[in-house]
Amino acid sequence: MSKSITIFDTTLRDGTQGEGISLSADDKLKIAKKLDDLGVHYIEGGIPGSNMKDIEFFNRVKDLRLNAKITAFGSTRRKNSLAEQDDNLQRMLAAGVPAATLVGKSWDFHVHTALQTTLEENLAMIGDSIAFLKSKGLEVIFDAEHFFDGYKNNPEYAAAVMARAREAGADWLVMCDTNGGTLPHEIQDIVTSLTQRIPGAHFGIHTHNDCELAVANALSAIQAGARQVQGTINGYGERCGNANLCSIIPTLQLKMGYSCIPEESLPQLTNTARYVSEVANVNMPVNQPYVGSAAFAHKGGIHVSAILRDSRTYEHIAPELVGNKQRVLVSELAGQSNVLSKAQEMGLNLDPSSEQARKVIDKIKDLEHQGYQFEGADASLELLLREATGEMNELFTFESFKMLVEKSAGKPVVSEAFVKLKVGGETLYTAGEGNGPVNALDNALRKALLAHFPQLKDMHLSDYKVRVLDEKDQTAAKVRVLIESKDYSDTWSTVGMSTNVIEASWEALVDSMRYALLGQISPENTDLLDVGQRGLVNH
Amino acid sequence: MSKSITIFDTTLRDGTQGEGISLSADDKLKIAKKLDDLGVHYIEGGIPGSNMKDIEFFNRVKDLRLNAKITAFGSTRRKNSLAEQDDNLQRMLAAGVPAATLVGKSWDFHVHTALQTTLEENLAMIGDSIAFLKSKGLEVIFDAEHFFDGYKNNPEYAAAVMARAREAGADWLVMCDTNGGTLPHEIQDIVTSLTQRIPGAHFGIHTHNDCELAVANALSAIQAGARQVQGTINGYGERCGNANLCSIIPTLQLKMGYSCIPEESLPQLTNTARYVSEVANVNMPVNQPYVGSAAFAHKGGIHVSAILRDSRTYEHIAPELVGNKQRVLVSELAGQSNVLSKAQEMGLNLDPSSEQARKVIDKIKDLEHQGYQFEGADASLELLLREATGEMNELFTFESFKMLVEKSAGKPVVSEAFVKLKVGGETLYTAGEGNGPVNALDNALRKALLAHFPQLKDMHLSDYKVRVLDEKDQTAAKVRVLIESKDYSDTWSTVGMSTNVIEASWEALVDSMRYALLGQISPENTDLLDVGQRGLVNH
């Protein structure tokens, strides 16, 4: 049997049904381009029958001239009506896409309860709708909703649904574990059974993660004969999410001998995952398999000693294969190895046996104990190590800041900041306004620094995270701020800590500029449009 | 074969090797008590050989008189030395625990590269160490590190390691997929093979999530004969984490006919997961299977219509079985069903066909489009719906606030807030100080309100999240603040949005008090120690 697997990406449709995910048409176009670069075969763009944003997407995506086939998603015709006159189906045609995904009921319980119609009418709805779209020249992917629950309950009917879809011309018969409750061995049995009942058809699998088995279920289906996998980047989707393509693709390709995307594209996986999470504006869990920032991050002292000798001791694959990288974490579990490895990574002269090394390791552990987290703030860690090795050149000295926010009912809020620094022998006192306190401080700080350091003009704040640390009294609790800064080619993160969110933000802001002034930053790539090229790999 | 599965929880040991997780001895004791209430069989508390916090834990945990067996983790004796003289082993004894988990190498590659010793010496290290601890009356769980990689590479040696452990008296032989790269069918084959080679032994499985298969691998091992599962709450652990017990336990117990924890304890699962994430101070992904706040959250209009008719249409189990609950999400994908269902849930009179309903649905969609997210802020949503239905009683009116933060080099930061409100006909102008701007505003606001509304005294801010929304210019971007407030029995969340983080925080703070003043809150449970009882189920 063929070892080629078709990758069907539904990030832009099923993915948007996850809590906290909402994509504009622009967002979808950016993501579609990225998915196409990765090499997925189908990109399901949305539901033209119910979403104006999606109609806009389908219109504009044609101009991108993507290799992937764009598909529109929709239901079979309404009961007791004609396919030709069905609004949904008409809108799917109007979307002008080469392929359509039709979802139809395959669980008798749903036919009775949700559709409130007969088993026979449901078969007709499926047959008619597929035949109609096929007659208009579209490729049709039939998604049999709740297929596994349906097959367990009434295997004859579920199989009849698939048979009808095939007769009507469906190009793919996709078995969906819509409620996410099926187990891998059940998937294996049912897929094997169906492929025997309908030999020669092209089968697909669409799983959900309600038991944390979406990936395992998809792999099980493929081993039993399915050749299309439907999933999403980062596993976004309704409830617990869809099958995570970022886990499935590398597992199939690197461990199971299948081919999904071009081999040379696999290293784009991590970058793609992060890009999509940025556009979707959701945090990517650090521990996400393959592509998470902690996927190859080693913390325990024993692990670190071993991987510094040979990465295969604690890594199941080389991170570069998926575009990720190994990281050594510095924490209170850290041995000397972790800190020294970091110093070496940064090109600093830290003699492992020196008093200097011992002191900075103690200082780091102490700061971590106070709540600093250098794991996500490599630039602040580097500044600390440079202070320890004497390789730090302070180009400005902080004197004071004042920050004022005023708001009256019915009037816009006003934020002003006043910053006093010393550069060389000169005292600079600047005032800045902004849309918020951090913006005002940033503006005042830049005014003070830019005159002397014009290289700072291309850097900007690209992400700002706040975390409150202690539980007992939350408005008097320690606050940790992580700032991510970017310029054309680099990304760097700094941390600040205080019970005062403004002071913590100030600390992280100042560190971001001290780091920029180290001379590590050089203006290079002027492509402002593609976030993906702007140093995400460094994060 | 028995259907009882032994649950071995290593949240407090392997779990702490995950990035961003750091637990004090106090944290560990709180969590241990919670795990014991849930009914796990073993609680691995830490590594007495290398961690002072853990020695403190082992001393103090005895006073809790838990049902679960506490175990200490450590390595086999060092090469070319005597077990009796090994520091690690001595500290494991000194921990005074009834059971010890000994980790030993079972992959010849590791014996040569990491330990730099001979295969025979490694076997002796394992045999000696186990025999030594057994002679001191301990139960011994042997963790064969990298077992599956070891077995694939050199099955005779890996099996010999297990045989030696058994001969020396190990009570459990645990196969660890330490690098997380093994596949479910390989697990099945290898576990089956080993159980045939060493019949009658008690086998365990310890998996990692580097391919997103930790849960599937654990289930596969159990189906092949393993009877102990090692994992962590919420899947915390090194790199991509350990096997997630919150996914394994309900799957084994509700779907596969095994028994792990007492049936009446299973509904505590969600509360346990959230409690542990709070103590560990890490966000729980909303889409976590079974226990995530979105695990049974329905967003698409079609899904919502169907589940309002019958939950089984889109839920694989009843959420209450694991202590979770169904939620209907309001978003731009929402149909009328979502909003109306929420209104009904809140006990409000919103006539579905009314102009009122149409207006508030439009308003919600518009606010969501601006960036408000009511999904995580039920209290703000309720206030909005109440405004629409005229069931909102505003007890105070906002006039103005000023907020000032000052910092000079070498001096502590100062935050002051000045708040002007009207209550009844009376203007109240208060000043507050704080450890930060939100704390200062909170204090000034409370001073103004408490005189008239003493019922606010028991509420406090329990979580504070900030998210920056637009990418282009991050310090002038929209900021969304989510505040979680608590009193003795309830938890409620409110949202604020602005380009100004102070104004956004103010909005969320004011909403939290408006909500508290609705009279929904009643002081009940005065047990301050157990966070778990304080309304977490409501979140």
TrEMBL record, chains A, B:
Listed under catalytic activity are: pyruvate + acetyl-CoA + H2O = (3R)-citramalate + CoA + H(+)
What pathway, per the record? Amino-acid biosynthesis; L-isoleucine biosynthesis; 2-oxobutanoate from pyruvate: step 1/3
InterPro entries assigned to the protein according to its UniProt record, in alphabetical order: 2-isopropylmalate_synth_dimer, AIPM/Hcit_synth_CS, Aldolase_TIM, Citramal_synthase, LeuA/HCS_post-cat, LeuA_allosteric_dom_sf, PYR_CT
The UniProt entry, under SMART domains, shows: LeuA_dimer
By its UniProt entry, which PROSITE patterns does this protein fall under?
Answer: AIPM_HOMOCIT_SYNTH_1, PYR_CT
Keywords from UniProt, A to Z, are: Amino-acid biosynthesis, Branched-chain amino acid biosynthesis, Isoleucine biosynthesis, Transferase
Record-listed E.C. numbers: 2.3.3.21
Q: Which residues form a coiled coil?
A: none
Mind listing the GO molecular function terms for this protein?
Answer: (R)-citramalate synthase activity; 2-isopropylmalate synthase activity
Task: List GO BP terms, alphabetically.
Answer: isoleucine biosynthetic process; L-leucine biosynthetic process
> In which family does this protein belong, per the annotation?
Belongs to the alpha-IPM synthase/homocitrate synthase family.
PANTHER family, per this entry?
Answer: (R)-CITRAMALATE SYNTHASE, ALPHA-IPM SYNTHASE/HOMOCITRATE SYNTHASE
Q: Per its record, how is this protein called by name? A: Citramalate synthase
